Amino acid sequence: MTTSLQAALSQELKHELKTTRRLLERIPTEQFGWQPHPKSMRLGTLASHIANLVGYLEMSLQGPATDVLMAPAPASPTTIDEVLQRFDVNGENIHKALEQVDDATFHDSWSMQRGEQVLVTMPRTAVARIMVLNHMIHHRGQLSVYLRLLDIPVPAIYGGSADEAPQQ
């Protein structure tokens, strides 16, 4: 039996979104302004960025190009509840969007533009892997370090952590 690209991606997203949400849930709103270094993102900015990342895949499935000037960024959340709500809505939306496409859609190219300037063009498979999954996992790694530095227990991710046994 062959699994469709869309089904495999949906399954992987479910796993990664669940793991990412477990980290986001631990962020205290009162620490949103904290940053480990002046060159680092503030905790609240990092959390908001993670919550918005999944939206890039949904955006890419809506047409051959997206002009970021026509799709303004949403306001930054000010509480962890707002971050989690955005993360959950974006996760639900991408799963609904994935149900509506076939594998051929992922081989088509998509471009992100700023007006006439093309910022990036890539196949939607690369959008899914690079702009969404790998990008989210990268920032999730940063977030786990932020939590450790704030002495907030780090959940198990791909195995146990110093604070939690592996998930079954």
From TrEMBL:
Pfam families, from UniProt? DinB
Membrane-spanning residues:
none
Report if keyword Metal-binding is assigned.
Answer: yes
UniProt KW keywords: Metal-binding
Keyword Cytoplasm in the entry? The reply is: no
Q: Give the family per the record.
A: Belongs to the DinB family.
Q: What is this protein called?
A: DinB family protein
Q: Which organism is it from?
A: Hymenobacter cavernae
Upper lineage:
Bacteria, Pseudomonadati, Bacteroidota, Cytophagia, Cytophagales
